[in-house]
């Protein structure tokens, strides 16, 4: 069965319109049926669409019928994408469409992880967030991606809570664990989130060198994977770090990285980050305590 949502998700990651994706391959109507109704086109059309998106045919096909598992997975993936775009209200509304009692067992860790993010970012409840991230870790069942995500959540919650010692412990664990993760299109967003949150933590605690090292790795990884999440925030973070190291000495590098952050933020539709960047351009100061995601 065709998973139209994955085509939509990858198209939006690449900031590509339906018309641009369909151009020279099929009609826009055909593409709409693929994305919205999971109707598969002729094989050669599907192959060309996948090639243009940097996907394989296997990436957009599943053995499952229109199962509860696939439906819930699509929703959880969509919520994660909304978080990368800082669209928290929309993410919360979509999360509320899920019924916790009906979540399939295979997705229980992922559900708890997303719930922890809702608690942490939207409800500002670090205690509930740590509780849900802890359950996510318990239910990960040796799934490396789920373990990395849960540890990232715990580390981030402690960082926001102001418990630097515990946050550093978990972020060190995150970086160590990330070295053993095989990156693919299905886990790239969580992998980048782990590194992005770690980069912000070390920056906030004045370890600008380590933060820049992580941010540079994020940029190289996303370019290699042809993915946009966190490239904009990483350029912004590098500018932030250089600004606090020596504003006068690194003035050119700061402005260059802010311009790159602005370009990628526009491409990915990150309006929240654009507001931070524009504020810096006007006032030559950084917004304090910008949201960590």
Description:
Helix content is 70%, strand content 0%. The protein is an all-alpha fold and 293 residues long. The longest helix is centred in the middle third of the chain and has 18 residues, at 144-161. The model has no long low-confidence stretch (mean pLDDT 88).
Give a nutshell description of this structure:
The chain has 293 residues and is mainly α. The protein has helices at 4-13, 18-22, 28-37, 43-53, 68-84, 88-95, 108-122, 126-138, 144-161, 164-178, 188-204, 208-225, 231-246, 251-268, 271-283. It is built from 15 helices and no strands.
What number of structural domains do the residues give?
3
Radius of gyration: 20 Å
The SSE string, one letter per element, is HHHHHHHHHHHHHHH
Please give the alpha-carbon distance between the first and last residues: 33 Å
CATH topology heading of the largest domain:
Serine Threonine Protein Phosphatase 5, Tetratricopeptide repeat
Name the beta content range: under 5%
The CATH superfamily label of the largest domain reads Tetratricopeptide repeat domain
- Number-wise, the strands total 0
CATH class of the largest domain: Mainly Alpha
**How much helical structure, as a percent, in the residues?**
55-70%
Task: Throw out a few tags for this protein.
293 residues; mainly alpha; 434 Repressor (Amino-terminal Domain); Serine Threonine Protein Phosphatase 5, Tetratricopeptide repeat; 70% helix; globular; DNA binding; HTH-type_regulator_Rgg; Lambda_DNA-bd_dom_sf
